[in-house]
């Protein structure tokens, strides 16, 4: 099964392939998603038994309930070799669910995420918009898991996995003990769970557009992704959508013209130098690129890409579906007539 996964060291999320959950959320397949209350299926809870008396039937039932996600969890998320796949990976999974560190982590996840009702409400509203804006969009299934800090989100076609152990809060002491960078720890909190997951959905659907290696294409694709998230989550603060602080967002707004002038001066728009280009899109405490000050926000290329998309939409009356399916990057920037005022 093909898949793409978001690792803890990559805060760009991006993903895809073909899967189908057989029994979970089955009711969602029979009604328009906009009429439903979305539920997150708690694989992180179903995997563990309270009485700790594990029989082979437990793993057999989980395999049937979670279909392909079960195998992907084993092989891709917690890295069990296929050589150990006998009896639905029951032997290595038994070691996983009985390992003291995992049991402690589960306890801590349960204490933070007693329920996921706020997130389910937010997803219900977001996916109603998604269903309305994207014709023939398949129902989206959300599954939570823990992976011992391996993945924040994974996506397989319309199945989006949420790694709850990477949303335990900036004050969770294990993150600093594991030497996660400070800029990353600030974002390992519950408030980011919904926007990160919607972003994962967007990348799972549209990532195949990224074939053009130019800076211009990357910038506008990232800008479209931010517009996608903001459209589905209209009440979510820009700080969460862009993953930057209020001061960094203010810096971007005040220096938009200077950022654009810098990109032009450095002749970046048509550059295909990946190592050079990525400096403007990577997460970090700031944008680490020659000529960009340390007080900058990270990923200023994404911010400018979003502003160009907004300029395009101001000139062209197109809906979300039309925009997201347009990967003619030269046409997008030309019709945007983007020219920020100093």
Question: Helices, strands, pairings?
Answer:
Blueprint: E1 4-7, E2 40-42, H1 43-46, H2 56-77, H3 86-98, H4 100-112, H5 117-133, E3 141-145, E4 151-156, E5 159-163, H6 173-177, H7 182-185, H8 193-206, H9 215-232, H10 238-242, H11 246-254, H12 256-265, H13 274-278, H14 300-315, H15 320-324, H16 329-336
Parallel strand pairs: 2-3, 3-5
Antiparallel strand pairs: 1-4, 4-5
Describe the structure in your own words.
With about 350 residues, the protein is of the alpha/beta class. The protein folds into 2 domains: about 5-205, no CATH class; about 210-335, no CATH class. It is about 50% helix and about 5% strand. The protein has 16 helices and 5 strands. It has helices at about 45, 55-75, 85-100, 100-110, 115-135, 175, 180-185, 195-205, 215-230, 240, 245-255, 255-265, 275-280, 300-315, 320-325, 330-335; strands at about 5, 40, 140-145, 150-155, 160-165. It has a 5-stranded mixed sheet with strand order 1-4-5-3-2, sandwiched between helices. Strand 4 (about 150-155) and strand 5 form a beta hairpin. Helix 2 crosses helix 3 (about 85-100), helix 8 (about 195-205) crosses helix 9 (about 215-230) and helix 14 packs across helix 16. The longest helix is centred in the first third of the chain and has 22 residues, at about 55-75. The chain is globular and about 65 Å long.
> How many distinct folded domains?
2
Number of helices: 16
What is the H/E order? Answer: EEHHHHHEEEHHHHHHHHHHH
Radius of gyration: 21 Å
Uncertain runs are: 1-34
The strands making up the biggest β-sheet line up spatially as: 1-4-5-3-2
Q: Judging from the principal axes of the Cα atoms, what is the shape?
A: globular
Largest sheet: number of strands, sense, barrel closure = 5 strands, mixed
The fraction of residues assigned to DSSP E strands is 5-15%
């Amino acid at each position: 099964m093909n898949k793409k996964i978001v690792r803890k060291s990559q805060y760009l999320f991006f993903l895809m392939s073909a899967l189908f959950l057989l029994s979970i959320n089955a009711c969602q397949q029979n009604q328009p998603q906009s009429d439903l209350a979305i539920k997150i299926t708690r694989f992180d809870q179903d995997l563990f038994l309270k009485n700790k008396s594990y029989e082979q039937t437990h793993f057999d039932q989980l395999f049937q309930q979670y279909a392909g996600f079960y195998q992907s969890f084993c092989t891709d998320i917690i890295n069990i070799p296929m050589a150990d796949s006998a009896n639905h990976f029951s032997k290595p999974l038994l070691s996983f669910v009985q390992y003291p560190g995992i049991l402690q982590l589960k306890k801590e996840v349960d204490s933070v995420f007693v329920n996921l009702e706020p997130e389910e409400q937010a997803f219900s509203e977001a996916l109603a918009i998604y269903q309305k804006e994207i014709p023939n969009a398949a129902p989206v299934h959300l599954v939570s898991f823990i992976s011992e800090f391996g993945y924040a989100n994974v996506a397989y076609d319309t199945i989006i996995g949420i790694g709850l152990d990477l949303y335990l809060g900036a004050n969770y002491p294990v993150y600093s003990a594991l030497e996660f960078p400070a800029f990353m720890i600030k974002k390992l909190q519950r408030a980011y769970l919904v926007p990160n997951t919607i972003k994962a959905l967007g990348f799972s659907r549209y990532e195949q557009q990224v074939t053009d290696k130019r800076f211009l294409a990357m910038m506008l694709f990232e800008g479209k992704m931010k517009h996608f998230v903001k459209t589905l989550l209209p009440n979510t603060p820009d700080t969460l959508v862009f993953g930057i602080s209020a001061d960094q967002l203010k810096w971007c707004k005040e220096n938009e013209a200077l950022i654009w002038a810098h990109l032009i001066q450095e002749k970046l728009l048509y550059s295909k130098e990946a190592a050079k280009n990525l400096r403007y899109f990577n997460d970090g405490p700031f944008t680490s690129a020659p000529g960009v000050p340390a007080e900058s926000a990270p990923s200023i290329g994404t911010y400018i890409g979003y502003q160009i998309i907004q300029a395009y939409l101001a000139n062209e009356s197109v809906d979300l579906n039309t925009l997201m399916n347009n990967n003619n990057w030269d046409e997008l920037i030309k019709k945007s007539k983007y020219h920020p005022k100093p």
